[in-house]
Backbone:
């Protein structure tokens, strides 16, 4: 429901009237940017799309009232708490609300509308996701739902083959420490900062030639210099994490939510199209 947040923010700015429109919200090298300029930009970019979205939302909310559907207060509180948890503390959250003229009540009302729309689509489409549906989906997608094999990888990256060969010679002949060598020699700032550490990389995430080389290694082993992008690399495997098959019991709840969301996304435009056919809609210009 991203469109609802954009439209609500736009309406919140507009509803402040002349005083809000003239309020300075940023100063760039002495040049003021006002709320009015932001409102015009948002309106230009999003108004037509979000007016359509607001009309659709209004139609579904009217249908919810007709069907007697009520929002779940517990779910409202849970979603509000999850939204607030994205900020460092309550004060920061409230500061962000005030910056667009919102209140706690506005946010909870918006969440309630979202829940009502979901519930109405579910009721109208008679949507249900059974345990059998979840199990069938799991069985058909078991391979990609599991955790693939992964390696904990480190890298030395340099600009030229000569530098890569020198680094390889230090590793193989002198027994230089890979992490220290990467921190000292790598041309990439992040590699130097992290002593070459890349973390765990799953199968399928690397270029085929690199993946073939690194997944053939045992912990502690490293590749010969390889050309990568605009430079040359040596990769070392620090650890191997074997593939782990998907556990149905552990992800059953997530799968149910995903399948339900999929059905809601499919059914929502069908419902709004039906409601629009029966509705009297006047766009005031």
Residues:
């Amino acid at each position: 429901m991203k469109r609802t947040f954009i439209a609500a923010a736009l309406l919140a700015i507009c509803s402040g009237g002349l005083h809000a429109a003239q309020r300075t919200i940023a100063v760039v090298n002495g040049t003021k940017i006002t709320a009015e300029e932001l409102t015009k930009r948002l309106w230009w970019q999003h108004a037509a799309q979000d007016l359509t979205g607001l009309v659709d939302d209004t139609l579904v909310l009217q249908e919810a009232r007709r069907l007697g559907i009520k929002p779940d207060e517990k779910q409202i509180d849970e979603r509000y708490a999850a939204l607030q948890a994205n900020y460092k503390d309550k004060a920061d959250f409230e500061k962000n609300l005030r910056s667009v003229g919102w209140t706690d009540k506005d946010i909870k009302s918006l969440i309630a509308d979202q829940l009502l729309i979901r519930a109405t689509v579910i009721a109208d489409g008679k949507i249900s996701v059974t345990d059998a549906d979840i199990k069938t989906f799991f069985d058909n997608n078991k391979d990609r739902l599991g955790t693939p094999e992964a390696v904990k990888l480190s890298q030395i990256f340099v600009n030229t083959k000569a530098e890569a060969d020198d680094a390889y010679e230090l590793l193989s002949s002198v027994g230089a420490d890979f992490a220290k060598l990467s921190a000292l020699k790598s041309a990439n700032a992040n590699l130097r900062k992290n002593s070459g550490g890349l973390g765990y990389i799953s199968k399928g995430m690397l270029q085929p030639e690199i993946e073939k080389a690194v997944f053939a290694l045992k912990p502690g082993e490293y590749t010969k210099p390889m050309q990568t992008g605009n430079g040359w690399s040596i990769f070392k495997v620090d650890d191997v994490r074997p593939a782990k098959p998907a556990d149905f019991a552990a992800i059953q709840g997530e799968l149910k939510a995903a399948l339900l969301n999929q059905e809601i996304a499919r059914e929502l435009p069908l419902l709004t199209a039906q409601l629009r056919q029966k509705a009297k809609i006047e766009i005031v210009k």
Notes: The beta strands are 24-28, 31-34, 150-158, 197-202, 226-228, 231-241. Confidence is low (pLDDT under 50) at residues 1-7, 9-21.
